[in-house]
Amino acid sequence: AAGVIQSPRHLIKEKRETATLKCYPIPRHDTVYWYQQGPGQDPQFLISFYEKMQSDKGSIPDRFSAQQFSDYHSELNMSSLELGDSALYFCASSLSTGANEQFFGPGTRLTVL
Amino acid sequence: AQSVTQLGSHVSVSEGALVLLRCNYSSSVPPYLFWYVQYPNQGLQLLLKYTTGATLVKGINGFEAEFKKSETSFHLTKPSAHMSDAAEYFCAVRGFYNQGGKLIFGQGTELSVKP
Which of residues 8-27 of B touch A (CB under 8 A)? Predict the structure, then answer.
């Protein structure tokens, strides 16, 4: 069965650079969630989209922005990167916000040097 | 607001022994509860979930959990641990009326299985 695809899987950036993470949800899933997991931490919710509209916002820095496109894929744009942004970024998808289960992608490991 | 507390950041059991990972939640509305497993450098895989109905839920790999409203708990158990069960386990809650659907995770419990 098709799963959530995230690209790239690994990304190394310098401080103050920008990064773009991409997420391709499971076909027909209309809802995408982004989570950030720091080293040894639990995943923290960043932002979510339903039918291309932002549906909820968590502890996402103003330096980050995200959107969901007409084909339901989503991109997380991160600017002015800081060392503390180094983390594993997960995307999850579900079929509508009322669905019970979120399916997680393998994550993008971002390292900021 | 919902929250989740996992008791014990590290649990170590012997192979073949009972696995018990504790999770308590806080929610003002009937919660949806989940257990996810994360292997090193991998994503999160759903083990099991409670939404409504039967309070004892069975998941993959022989795991099960019981929703106890009176104790606000959703502990994860497995009768006999395998070496392959060694991983990080996260309990998560999503509020019933939360239209955004975000998951709120506990701090995680690292399970070690000794031969």
Answer: none
